[in-house]
Description:
Blueprint: E1 2-4, E2 9-13, H1 19-28, H2 30-34, H3 46-57, E3 67-72, E4 75-86, E5 91-98, H4 107-121, E6 127-133, H5 137-145, E7 149-161, E8 164-174
Parallel strand pairs: 5-6
Antiparallel strand pairs: 1-2, 2-3, 3-4, 4-5, 6-8, 7-8
Helix pairs in contact: 1-3
Amino acid sequence: MILEVNQQIKLCEIKMQDAAVIFNTIDQQRDYLGQWLPFIAHTKVQADTENFIKAVSNVPYDQKELIFTIWYNDDFAGLVGFKATDRANSKTEIGYWLSEPFQKKGIVLSCVRYLSEYAFTRLGINRIQIKCASGNKRSKRIPEKLGFIFEGIERAGERVNEHTYFDLEVFSLLRSDNV
């Protein structure tokens, strides 16, 4: 599946052929990406990325999460997609990360806006949430700019390492908010 967000941004459903470019981006930007993304420390070889892609790809269609590579002017820029989808309650979460050279171009903002509308109109979702590590101001600006409502703090919501956890700021948008 390919979604055209605009003339510069294209979302392509993640596939095994993406493993090298995803891993190389992670490997070259460990310090930058690792500030807020705990999985970076556990992504040590390309096979780790391949295993992630297998895990999200090899599930029954009705349980599959849509995860996309982000392409900006035909260059790989990051990942965005749905996670923790609860179909019985028509809710999902959107997660994202972006390579450092592509920051401050409105890429994630455009992608999340597009996927939010896609979730409401094509997937029948009623509630979308975004969780951002407290202190990750760039990530937090995305839901704020898109009209998501701040709901509160999920204390120690994400494990960073064996003894450290991030508090997560939780934002949500309902289909009825999306006017």
